[in-house]
Every structure is written in C-alpha cells, then in structure tokens.
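QA checklist item 7 of 12: single-chain prediction sanity check.
[x] sequence parsed
[x] length recorded as 355
[x] structure emitted
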Amino acid sequence: MTASAVPSSPPGPDGADASGDGRLRQVLGRVTVVRGTALGGGLYNSARLLELGDGRRLVLKTAPPADAPALTHEQGLLGTEALFHRLAAGAGARVPTVLHHEPAGPGVPSEWLLLSYLDGTTWADARDRLTPADHAVLRHRLGATLARVASVTGPAYGYLRRGPGLSAADWPSAFTAMLRAVLADASRFGVALPAPVEFLAELPVRFDHRLAEVRRPALVHFDAWEGNIVLGRTPSGVREGPGEVADTGAWRLNGLIDGERAFFGDPLAELVGLDPLGTAEDDAGLLAGYRSVAPGLAVDGGARVRLALYRVYLALVMRVESVPRAYGGEFAAWLDTWSADRLTEQLAVLDTLES
C-alpha cells in the first residue's frame, strides 16, 4: 500500500486513559509514567506510548467498549494480537513482547494489552528515505520473516480466538464461515455491495477444490503492510542472518506489529494482507526471501485462484468496516470506490482462471 495511492485515513479511536498508571501498576507494581503519547495508525484499537521513569517504553493498547459496533470477527482482537506475538516470537520473528493481556469483563469495560515498544520508524514513514537497494534487501528479509511466522501450525483453521463459528477443521469450511460472516455484517450495517450477496456467498463453494489444496493451518498476520513493519538503522557488527553482518547505518527490519487480524489458514493469504493494493506474488525479491526459509511456496494456478478469493475477502472487510468505524471525507470516498473496483476486478480474475 503506497501513501500516494491512499488518502490519509481518519484517526483511530483513543479510548485509553491519559497515562495508564493504574493498569501498569496491576502488571509492573509501582511505576511512574513520565509521558504518554497517542500513537496513530490504528483504526479500531487505541494505542499509547508510555515512557516510564526507569527509562522503559511500553505500548498500552485499549479496545473500544465491548458493546461498540464491530464486525463479527472483531471480538477479542487484542487477545488475538497477544497470541500472534507469542507464537511469532517462538518462530523467530521480531515482534513486541507481550507483558499482559486483560479481556473485557466485570470491572473491565474494555479489553487491553501491554506490550514492549519496538524502536524505529514504520516502513511507511521511512519510505522516502529508502533507496531501491534498501527496498530490495528489506523485501527479501520481510519474505523470510513471514515464512517464519507461517511455520507455526494452529490447532484449527480460522481466527485464532476460535470465536463465533469462525474456525473449522478444514480451510474450505473456515474460509466459507469467514466470508459469509462479513457478508452478514454488510447486511447488518446496511452496506451496499457491488455484487449480489448470494453470488459472493457461493464463491467458496465454487472454488472448494482450490481451497482444499491448503493442508496445514499456518499462522498468517494478514495485515503486514508497510504501516505495520518497523524499521531501524543497524549498529556496527549486528548480524541480520546466518553469516550476514549488515553495514553500519543500513536499514534493518526491527519487527512486525499489530497482529490483531491474524488467523490460521493459507500462508499465501499473507501476500494479500501485506500488499492490499497490488500483487505481492509478482515481487521476486519478496518471494526469494520467503523461499529462503520455506522453499515449497508455489504460486501456481490454484494459488492464483485462492489469492483472488482472499482479495475479495479483504476488499469486503475494508468496505464493510467503514460503517461501524464511521469513516468520512476523502478516505471514505476513496475506500468506497477502491473496494468496489477491487471486487469487480477479482471476480473477473476468477472467471478467467477457471474458464
């Protein structure tokens, strides 16, 4: 996703308290917050950077109240994020450390999550400072990181929290449930769609044989675009990989953030989430990095059908969420046009691939 292609998105919610002192004391004991700064970029949960008196920097994320309008799969998203980070860290990916997760419940009106802070800047913010060579190296490393994430195998297919009917023992069933849930959300929120609901709901049935080619529930971040990738400058002598020592001052991949959209499913779906506007499967450097860890990744005819299905799903999610989020202005207008065009485009791709 490029900054030039997308108008500025609306600011996300900011429901966290100004300092977070009370919540921190539950986890860390007596601490002093010397500064709390709202972090932008999120459109659902709020996030604050908390600077402590002992020099530590942490991130406090807070969900909207449990009764706030939301899509069906947006239940316990911070619990999903906590689980994603723990699993990804175990696979060797750089992610924030989970310090505490508190679900909503009696006396806790909103779910919250406390994380370590990843130093650096997002790829989106650093983009204009990256040379073509920087970009190529980073895309290769990103591919390798996402392959490590996908090495994690889940207990079932679908969303990590295994919430309302959105997981199953096989990928066709799980993806069908995920797609039909967002279609039900469109009806619930009165969102007009550019194709009949009945037609869209039958897509997983029509392409069941292609979805059935997925035989392992791999961990997928599904939102690893440049705004959720943290970069930094490499100090002298730091190793970036086996036998590889980066030049001083070179850009490095500091980690992935915001794993709240993660699910267990087809690892190819990661290519859709990290490049919502494009076709990441055509990025040779990214795929080379991925295959340096997982050589078996194939982008064949069946894979291209599945990629088109996942693009339909993502466009639907982005289109429908605009109503409960109350997007407005230029961003809402762009999203309405883009999502309709993307859906029409990908439905045509499916027709071509299966003709």
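[x] summary fact logged: The longest helix spans residues 329-353.
[ ] second reviewer sign-off
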